[in-house]
């Protein structure tokens, strides 16, 4: 299954930018609701645990170095010290100290088993079997339908994980905070097709 990606979140726009609803919204909403029930998990790309964080990772732009200490603070992860072999800037392998983060029992509740895939910088497709997820989307209201592209625009509800209401979590997951603030106001888009008399979501 393919989960809602962070790229899709960036496509959310103001509801006022679209035209008024057209006939058939009830059927479209039913199709969207079924699709999001299966595919509406919002996850943050932390596929494989444990995750190692080394000194200097934050300066290098590592999200893990910023986010994982907060997850630990919230009781969702825990860290132990260790050593791993990494290549330095000159390409030489050396041992470096790391904090190795694992999910706690509380954190494991938010790790969902899902078959999906990502693309490596080399273009290689990587199969994934799960991800750390922070909430789930559902339909609030269908507000527009583009027949030419088979795309529905809709406002959404977002059932965020309880800990995502903590200021520290919203600070390190700003895109999720943005989604939370846009609940019922901003729009997302989803392609659908008519199949056996019912509208079904199309996985891109």
TrEMBL record:
Signal peptide: 1-19
Keywords attached to this entry: Signal
Entry protein name: DUF3108 domain-containing protein
Organism encoding this protein: Rugamonas aquatica
